Amino acid sequence: MYDYDLLVIGSGPGGQKAAIAAAKLGKRVAIAERRDMMGGVCVNTGTIPSKTLREAVLYLTGFAQREMYGASYRVKSEITIADLLARTQHVVGREVEIIRNQLLRNHVDILGGTAHFEDPHTVTVSGAERGDHSTVTAEYVVIATGTRPARPPEVEFDDDEYHVVDSDAVLHLHRVPTSMVVVGAGVIGIEYASMFAALGTKVTVVEKRPNMLDFCDPEVVESLKFHLRDQGVSFRFGEEVARVENTAKGTITSLASGKKIPADMVMYSAGRQGVTDELALDKANLTADKRGRIAVDQHYRTEVEHIYAVGDVIGFPALAATSMDQGRLAAYHAFGEPARELHGLQPIGIYTVPEISYCGRTEAELTETATPYEVGISRYRELARGAIVGDSYGMLKLLVSTEDRTLLGVHVFGTNATDLVHIGQAIMGCGGTVDYLVDTVLNYPTLSEAYKVAALDVTNKIRALEAYR
Ligand SMILES: Cc1cc2nc3c(=O)[nH]c(=O)nc-3n(C[C@H](O)[C@H](O)[C@H](O)COP(=O)(O)OP(=O)(O)OC[C@H]3O[C@@H](n4cnc5c(N)ncnc54)[C@H](O)[C@@H]3O)c2cc1C
């Protein structure tokens, strides 16, 4: 007899939902988590603080209102780091409480500390204090230990002065930097670059690839780059960082091409590493790859049958949204509860300022697979709601099959993009055509009206095509 039916290691979105799903099935469940990290990276250092910080930046800078009230409009003229972090701390504290309460309400035991395997069914959880540890056995184990920022060994991070930081330390800054170098134009790097640019920081982005966010629609990425440049962001694409000097006054980033960039602060966003080093995986007959990731099958089962792994520790797509479902599905599979696989159609949301979101295929993918399509575009500046909210740059783009009029992709740039995308996702998920949007009445004035305008645009183009046949 085991102490628990399920032991979950890590309380991020994946672990949390695995624990709750198993508890709802009437199983005896425990979750191991470090005492100061309830809710995982998601709640403490990742999704929630970064998105709350973004909201605080947008509000305090009055950024979204400047089209209306002029470029000098501010809610607060001198924005301090305390102003920004107050909101973040409030939201994080609230989320931690909600998660802890949900776990306790569902009778999930919380084991505070760092877990490691003793054998494939036995795990010891050690707290920070000497003697503060417990060893428990479980029939099934879900590993949901997530990732941490990768720190290149040649870079000297200083966690005291916060001159050279990663995306965790950026949440503990003492001041809003005047200038900043962001190394790596991945999603996290570019989200922070755009937030600091909105705050008035002079940002330089260094990226060794020739472009950024190349999985997104190129037109949307061009719009984002235009906006960021307009806010004073400089891009150094195709450039590598050779050295970062940390001086008493700030930093000097030397590029391999010989350029030198002086800045108050450097933020490294150079990928993430799976947190598997403290798990003693060998004792469970498991291994991780060199990026700390654990391999799983389609049911999130590792090579050891009763041990599952979910969330960022298994790699792509490494999103809070997908991690939650992976956790639920792993628990269902372990206990033989019937469940359907996740729908293949998943949205991507990038919370830059302005935000980007898409679902389905891109023009490049459709062209590569020789899929005939037509494009319908709606610009926010032509929507009444666009004028009301002061967004003149936003746009929504529909990609529609010219063969059967099904929706193949939706790409949104601008206010509420990450919410709006779900309308297109639902239509695509149900195999719907563009005619649904043409024949549907939407609330007015809304940004959702962009769907109607883009649908009419694309159907007019398809009609023109047919008229010439
Ligand atoms: C800056 C940033 C912004 C992001 N923004 C978004 C976004 O907008 N949307 C989105 O969907 N995703 C976003 N993500 C990604 C999202 O945060 C992750 O996909 C999600 O948190 C992964 O969940 P997880 O279940 O793998 O666990 P994580 O949230 O990674 O948490 C893992 C937990 O495991 C614990 N743990 C590790 N080892 C042990 C051990 N040995 N014993 C006990 N506990 C252990 C850790 O303490 C940690 O709390 C962002 C990430 C970052 C860093």
From TrEMBL:
Coiled-coil portions: none
Pfam families in UniProt: Pyr_redox_2, Pyr_redox_dim
GO biological process: 2-oxoglutarate metabolic process
Catalyses which reaction(s): NAD(+) + NADPH = NADH + NADP(+)
Binding site for FAD: K51, D312
Record's subcellular location: Cytoplasm
Family: Belongs to the class-I pyridine nucleotide-disulfide oxidoreductase family.
InterPro entries: Class-I_Pyr_Nuc-Dis_Oxidored, FAD/NAD-bd_sf, FAD/NAD-binding_dom, FAD/NAD-linked_Rdtase_dimer_sf, Pyr_nuc-diS_OxRdtase, Pyr_nucl-diS_OxRdtase_dimer
GO molecular function: dihydrolipoyl dehydrogenase (NADH) activity; flavin adenine dinucleotide binding; NAD(P)+ transhydrogenase (Si-specific) activity
Function according to Swiss-Prot or TrEMBL: Conversion of NADPH, generated by peripheral catabolic pathways, to NADH, which can enter the respiratory chain for energy generation.
Residue span, Pyridine nucleotide-disulphide oxidoreductase dimerisation domain: 347-454
Gene3D superfamilies linked: 3.30.390.30, FAD/NAD(P)-binding domain (3.50.50.60)
Limits of the FAD/NAD(P)-binding domain: 4-327
Cofactor note: Binds 1 FAD per subunit.
Keywords: Cytoplasm, FAD, Flavoprotein, NAD, NADP, Nucleotide-binding, Oxidoreductase
Binding positions for NAD(+) per the UniProt entry: G184, A185, G186, V187, I188, G189, I190, E191, E207, G271
Gene this protein is translated from: udhA
Protein name: Probable soluble pyridine nucleotide transhydrogenase
Cofactor(s) of this protein: FAD
Enzyme class: oxidoreductase
Organism whose genome encodes this protein: Pseudonocardia halophobica
Cellular component GO terms held in the UniProt record: cytosol
Entry EC no(s): 1.6.1.1
Listed PANTHER family: DISULFIDE OXIDOREDUCTASE (PTHR22912), SOLUBLE PYRIDINE NUCLEOTIDE TRANSHYDROGENASE (PTHR22912:SF93)
